[in-house]
Amino acid sequence: MAETRFAIGYALAPKKQNSFIQDSLVSLAKSRGIYLVRIDMERSLVDQGPFDCVLHKLYGDDWKRQLQDFKVKYPNAVILDSPDAIERLHNRISMLQVVSELKIEDHNETFGIPKQIVIYDKETLFDRQAWETLKFPVIAKPLVADGSAKSHKMALVFNHDGLNQLKPPIVLQEFVNHGGVIFKVYVVGEYVKCVKRKSLPDVSEDKLRVSEDLLSFSQVSNLATNERIDDKYYKRMQLDDTEMPPQSFITDIARGLRQAMKLNLFNFDVIRDSRYGNRYLIIDINYFPGYAKMPGYETVLTDFFCDIMYKKQKEVVNCPDEKDCLINTGLDRRQTHNNDKDMRKLISNTCCDVDEGGLPVSTISREEKENSLQV
After folding, report:
1. Mapped to the 3 state alphabet, what secondary structure does the chain carry?
2. Which of 1, 21, 219, 319 could make an SS bond with 325 (beta carbons 3.0 to 4.6 A apart)?
């Protein structure tokens, strides 16, 4: 029986493509029946493929229309992820509103978001009554979070004079001392990986009185390279000394966010409030982050692609009517004639079972795989 090929078309900006589509990922995926194919942005998407799955991180009305047209022609193709779901993360207010919707129980830890307000104009910016609930220092972030260089430009504002350098619309988020460590949580379907990175140092009351008005930066986790940050602070601080959040707690939050946002590929930034040992604050959520920075990302992503493949093939096995199978899966007619035994063998030979001498697969159980994908 011929091997089933699972084609994933990817549409990524050049910088994202260069970092994510590594030879190591392409090779591992291919060895397990997953073929990563670049989508030609000079041609209409609907004229390419067919693809079992479209993996993308592009924005704009034209691209959204192309995805809609592609879905009409190939209704059983998987789109990772829905443009409408992704758009929620383009606004720094709406992206964190989802956190308040989560209900995580049976943990000693608590979570939330920092106090924050959105400022649309200069008049409101200098109206102290408009944001009297906040106190300095504050983090000023652009309201729009579309992944552009401009959307990454942020500032730590120490006093009212620092507001003069800000350009609304912006979000003002209360800065919370967190021991100079930020936890970045990567989510790939059911897979959750938490890593720790250096962050902004704590700001004491004494330092607040003598600090400059404003400190600009682009990424919190890269601030150690900024000469204006206290270099001695970072030399003293050892990330190895920082306790990680409980894995079960982080996993429950990740699962809740994934279900609420209907997204499979994202990460979120978490800090531990220094005032409380068990209080965590989610400060940012990003779609399709730099997964190549995550150790072993090739295996994690390939396992995830295999989960998609398994789900599609399982629908063929369980489908009682051939016509319905074609509608539900998008697989060609040849594949619907396989019986259950052949299909189980097919699945075993590609992604979803451990084969003697084969590659390691996801630690997700068979039952979890059946319910793991929400697209």
Report:
1. CCCCCEEEEEEECHHHHHHHCCHHHHHHHHHCCEEEEECCCCCCHHHCCCCCEEEEECCCHHHHHHHHHHHHHCCCCEEECCHHHHHHHHECCHHHHHHHHCCCCCCCCEEECCCEEEECCHHHHCCHHHHCCCCCCEEEEECECCCCCHHHCEEEECCHHHHHHCCCCEEEEECCCCCCEEEEEEEECCEEEEEEEECCCCCCHHHHHHCCCEEEECCHHHHHHCCCCCHHHHHHCCHHHCCCCCHHHHHHHHHHHHHHHCCCEEEEEEEECCCCCCEEEEEEEEECCCHHHCCCHHHHHHHHHHHHHHHHHHHHHHCCCHHHHHHHHCCCHHHHHCCHHHHHHHHHHHCCCCCCCCCCCCCCCHHHHHCCCCC
2. 319
Q: Judge whether residue 16 has pLDDT over 90.
A: yes
Judged against a pLDDT cut of 70, whether residue 223 lies above it is answered with no
Structure confidence at residue 65 (pLDDT)? 97
Which residue bears the tokens 């990460």?
267
Nearest to 54 by CA among 20, 25, 83, 15: 83
pLDDT tens column, 74-102: 988 999 999 999 999 999 999 999 998 89
pLDDT per residue as tens digits for the range 162-209? 988 899 999 999 999 999 999 999 999 999 999 999 898 899 887 777
Strand partners of residue 271: 281
**CA 126 – CA 162 distance, rounded (Å):** 11
Closest residue by Cα to residue 183 from 83, 250, 88, 103: 250
* 343 C-beta neighbours (distance < 10 Å), count: 19
What's the rounded Cα separation, in Å, for the pair 328 and 248? 34
**Would you say 145 and 89 are in contact if contact means Cβ atoms under 8 Å apart?**
yes
pTM over 0.90: no
Predicted pLDDT of residue 317 = 58
